[in-house]
Predict the structure.
Amino acid sequence: MKPKKRCNKAGCRELIDYDEKYCPKHKGYGDKEYNRQVRFNKDNEKYAKFYNSSAWKKLRNAYIAAYPLCERCLKDGIIKQADVVHHIIEIRSDWSKRLDWDNLEAVCHEHHNKEHADLRKKN
């Protein structure tokens, strides 16, 4: 009998064989099929292009250089490196703020994932 582990999809508790990545429900998640269906589908194409643009990459790098620590962790007295530049007001809500320095926040992956999980719960 093979050892078991949890599916790699965040939040999924399905047990699968150790040599598998995803349960049957999430097969294809995290691969080219996921990119085709979710990241680069017709609704998200505009945003995917933006996040791959040189304008965004330059702004993101400049912001991380100016704020190398997670701004939310610092408020709690914790020093942790920032990995993500987050839009405070989502670009889906206000496209004009996509390159607005004042609409950015340097956060760690933990805070970024929590923010988006909270947004998904609201929607």
Remarks:
- The mean pLDDT is 87.
- The helical segments are 32-39, 45-51, 54-66, 71-75, 109-122.
- The longest strand covers residues 84-87.
- The chain has five helices and four strands.
